[in-house]
Design brief:
Strand order of the largest sheet: 1-2-3
Structural class: mainly alpha
Number of helices: 8
Helix content: over 70%
Strand content: 5-15%
Number of strands: 3
């Protein structure tokens, strides 16, 4: 594989069942569909289960998933997206969480204080404290999954840490270079741009409508920002008047 490169990547979700002497594997293979694989200690047990499950008229597939993927001949651009997805998979959670969390707190703090220092301090705190806490949570979550080794869990934790640290830091640049209101607006557009790119990439991988993914993810961001805006105004009104 190192000499010839990666030709295809086969991703599947396998569910195993056992019926007497027969092991039934139900595979949901990405970009290929659903398959059933039967393994038995004898032909009689195998054909008994085939009859029981009414599989006599189903299409028999002799090729491996590798061969089927090669025969499918996915477009080159689509294969590039899949390879890119394999590379950034560990960073997606951190980047998405960073965009949503930073956008919400950015708007909330700005509406409550209108202080450049407070906004910058909030972003920096998110980039440091929240990234480490989410990375640790990701590590514990992955370690608790059956079949996941600590090395894989650590890789996902590091991806979350890097993704959630780097992206929120970029939000500080417009705040430093522009007026506070303009900087916040630029940051929100930057966040929408990042979510849009991630949504398109995810939609291509899972074969769903890109517009549906964009509306769903950006819509969630709009809800978070709107709620943060009202919370900030609420705090500014009541706490500000109290002083």
């Amino acid at each position: 594989m190192r000499i010839h490169g990666i030709r295809v990547v086969v991703c599947k979700n396998r569910t195993l069942y056992r019926f007497h002497e027969v092991v039934i594997a139900c595979d949901d293979v990405e970009h290929l569909g659903v398959f059933i694989e039967l393994r038995a200690s004898s032909e009689k047990a195998l054909f008994d289960v085939i009859t029981l499950l009414n599989l006599e008229n189903e299409i028999l597939v002799k090729e491996s998933y590798f061969d089927l993927m090669c025969d499918k001949k996915l477009p080159e651009w689509f294969q590039m997206v899949l390879r890119f997805h394999e590379k950034i998979g560990e960073f997606v959670f951190g980047i998405t969480s960073g965009i949503l969390t930073t956008s919400g707190l950015l708007v909330g703090v700005n509406s409550a204080t209108e202080s450049r220092i407070a906004v910058i301090a909030t972003i920096a705190t998110i980039a440091i404290a929240d990234s480490f806490s989410d990375a640790f949570g990701m590590y514990l979550s992955k370690v608790s999954e059956r079949g996941i080794c600590k090395g894989v869990a650590l890789r996902y934790a590091c991806g979350t840490l890097v993704g959630k640290f780097i992206f929120p830091i970029t939000f500080i640049i417009p705040i430093l270079l522009c007026q506070l209101g303009v900087g916040v607006a630029i940051d929100l557009l930057w966040g929408v741009f990042g979510l849009t790119l991630l949504s398109i990439e995810q939609a291509i991988v899972v074969r769903e409508s890109a517009w549906s993914a964009i509306v769903r993810n950006v819509g969630l961001a709009v809800i978070i920002v709107t709620m943060s805006l009202f919370v900030g105004r609420f705090i500014e009104y009541f706490v500000g008047n109290a002083h």
